[in-house]
Amino acid sequence: MESLEQIKARIEQAVPGAILEIIPNGSPGNPESLRVDAEHALAVACFLKDDAPLRLDYASNVTGVDWPDKVVQQTVKARKVIDGVEKEFDSTIEVRQAGFLEAVYHLYSMELKHGPLVLRMRTVNRIDQTHLPSLTPLYRSADFQEREIYDLYGIIFDGHPDLRRLLMWEGFEDFPMRKDYVESDDYEFEPTAHNQVLEKARRHYPPKVSNG
To answer: Are 100 and 67 in contact (CB under 8 A)?
Structure first.
C-alpha cells in the first residue's frame, strides 16, 4: 500500500476542499492516522473504497475517543514599563481548549490484502455539536459499531440507517465511556448485585423494620 503521505496527496486532488491531517502515533508498532473534516468525510471514504490501488473495502474496527476540555499554558510576549523604559518579556497564560469526540475507523482491503488505513473524524465539541457523517452506507460492518459509539460516547451519526442505543436502555441520559462520566451507585437495574456492586446497592435499600 502507498504511504499515507501519497494517499493524502491523491485524496486532495480527487476530493477538492477536503481538509486532511496526518496524525502521528507515539506508540510502537501503531500506524499514523489520517484525520478528515466531517464535511468531506463521506466523499473521502468513497474514494478510499473505490480507488483501484487501495480498494479499502472493509471497516474492521470502529471506535470512539473522548477528548475532554483542557487547560494549556501558552507563552506570549508582553510589554511593561520598568524605570521609564518599555521592555518586552515572556509571560505565561492559561488557555482553555474545548474538547471534542472522535470516531476512528480501521480500513482494510479484503481484495488486495493490505491495510490498515486509520481514518479519524472529530466533532466540533462534546456538548451540542456532536454530529458526524455515518460511514455505514459504505461499510455495513460499521453499523453496530457506530451504534455503540452513539450509545457510549454520544456521537450522532447522520445518515445511519438505525441509530439507537445498543447497550444501554432507551431513556438512559448519559454516556458511560466519557471520561467525566460519574457512575451511579444505586444499581437498581442490577438483578444480581454482588461484591462491590452489592455494597453500593445496599446504601439504597430501605431500612429494616424491627418487629420487636
So the answer is: yes
